[in-house]
Design goal:
With about 475 residues, the protein is an alpha+beta fold. The protein is built from 14 helices and twelve strands. The chain folds into four domains: about 80 residues, no CATH class; about 100 residues, 2-Layer Sandwich (Beta-Lactamase), CATH 3.30.450.20; about 110 residues; about 160 residues, Heat Shock Protein 90, CATH 3.30.565.
Length: about 475
């Protein structure tokens, strides 16, 4: 009741009543009689004050409305900004968070208030994050760090945090930027640089081994031709040549990985290749593993070496067989997809265009993140030491890159593995077909250069045998890359 009375006394009607009461009291005061003119003057002044108050009230209401409009705009900017904003208490509890921030940690905003922010930081990053907050509090300037956040129901995200403490030191203001895509790009770039270094190393090793094998096989052949049929050393020379053959197989793998192996690119249908090798793949994986294929209805024409694409499928099927020792299921799915800039930003690889996607999924033991990251490195293997050379998947990687394609792997322990192969569709790669032809010419030219280094061996063999065209045995993988005779 008192509140209503006080409010009423501030209105125009209330002021008038107060003025009239005061005038009546003054009128009864014999010492201060008021004339009609004075009374009218006082009433006029009160009316002027009333108008002024009403104008002030209008201005205050307008200012309040403008402030509410501006506040609404900034609230929208805060809520819908692509950057995550957090306000943390000194103990690290969440006081306020916008929608982007809640999305980064996979929670409902209203349920995040009061929870400890550190619980959403990856366990391995928590000590660093705690030290980071202490540094922000002590420095009182903006500080930055990178941490991995656990996103409920999704993959962890890597964020860059910009933080500053308030003047009172009781709160922290945090801005979080999702840099997962950038980190993926950096990791793929580092991996590509590493693979390129290994490619150059493998190329040099393969060339040197080729030269050595030329000499070994050449001189072994010369020695055999100068021996009698019953000479006991002929058996030793056969072993030498057989060992050279085994070395040539390894050389072929290294050459294939280093892009020196020739290709025979031509337009082929990915679906037709899969249908053609399906029976053989069933033999590779065994009866205890069920093979399912689902090819796209439309044809997927790519420019590729038919035999090398088949070898890729066989290598991945072999890898899946080792991942499912107790049996399981291997699925092969093909489809046409578009790679755009958003895909490249999220996945960290690719070039814009249309691609044929081959997905090979097994229900095997899977692998952890560190193993999946290194799976395409040469000589790296997840199998028991000595059971694999570790070149299989690295060769698959090299062959796919030579076809201007890409390969990625997704896997989790005990949840199986999916290999995704992206090959550019023929309609979009006319210029790349020319590139492949140039690459083939480069290989032939390099092979001829290597042949001249060992030419003297075969000339020597011809002279010793008295023949202009000696038949010197060659190791597997070298036939066709050297000539005998003068």
């Amino acid at each position: 009741m008192g509140i209503d009375t006080d409010r009423d006394m501030t209105t125009g009607a209330g002021l008038r009543r107060r003025a009239e009461d005061q005038l009546k009291m003054n009128a009864t005061d014999a010492d201060n009689p008021r004339t009609d003119d004075e009374t009218q003057r006082l009433l006029h002044e009160l009316q002027v004050h009333q108008v002024e108050l009403e104008m002030q009230n209008v201005e205050l209401r307008q200012a309040r409305d403008e402030a509410e409009t501006v506040l609404g705009k900034y609230t929208d900017l805060y809520d819908f900004a692509p950057v995550g904003y957090f306000t943390l208490g000194r103990s690290g509890d969440i006081i306020a968070v916008n929608l982007a921030g809640a999305s980064l940690i996979g929670g409902v905003r209203s349920r995040l208030i009061g929870r400890r922010f550190g619980l959403f930081v990856a366990v391995s990053n928590r000590p660093n994050f705690t030290g980071f907050l202490d540094k922000v509090l002590s420095s009182r300037i903006k500080e930055s760090c990178e941490v991995m956040l656990l996103n409920k129901g999704k993959q962890p995200v890597v964020v860059q945090i910009e933080a500053m403490a308030t003047a009172s030191g009781q709160e922290f203001r945090l801005a979080l930027i999702d840099i997962t895509g950038r980190k993926n790009l950096e990791n793929h770039l580092l991996q590509a640089e590493k693979m390129e270094t290994v490619v150059l190393l493998a190329e040099g090793i393969a060339q040197d081994i080729n030269n050595i094998l030329h000499m070994i096989v050449g001189y072994a052949g010369c020695s055999k031709m100068n021996m009698k049929d019953n000479d006991s050393l002929r058996v030793s020379l056969d072993y030498i040549i057989a060992a050279a053959d085994r070395g040539a197989n390894l050389t072929g793998s290294l050459l294939s990985f280093s892009r020196m192996q020739p290709v025979n690119p031509m337009p082929v249908d990915v679906n037709e290749i899969i249908r053609r090798v399906e029976t053989f793949l069933k033999m590779v994986i065994g009866e205890d593993i069920h093979l399912e294929t689902a090819c796209s209805k439309e044809g997927l024409k790519v420019t590729a070496d038919n035999s090398q694409v088949e070898q890729i499928l066989i290598s991945l099927a072999t890898n899946a067989r080792h991942a499912m020792p107790d049996g399981g299921k291997l699925s092969i799915i093909t489809e046409a997809i578009d790679i755009d800039q958003e895909f490249i930003r999220l996945q960290g690889f690719g070039e814009p265009g249309k691609y044929a996607l081959i997905s090979m999924t097994d229900t095997g033991v899977g692998m952890d993140r560190d193993t999946a990251r290194r799976i395409f490195e040469p000589f790296f293997t997840a199998r028991v030491h000595g059971k694999s050379s570790g070149l299989g998947l690295s060769i698959v990687y090299g062959v796919i890159r030579r076809h201007n394609g890409f390969i990625d792997v997704v896997s989790e322990p005990d949840k199986g593995t999916t290999f995704m192969i992206y090959l550019p569709l023929t309609e979009l790669i006319g210029d790349r077909q020319i590139s492949s032809g140039k690459h083939l010419k480069k290989f032939i030219r390099t092979s001829l250069e290597q042949t001249t280094r060992a030419e003297s061996v075969f000339i020597h063999a011809g002279r010793n045998s008295g023949s202009d065209n000696p038949h010197v045995p060659e190791p597997a993988g070298l036939q066709g890359s050297q000539e005998c005779g003068t």
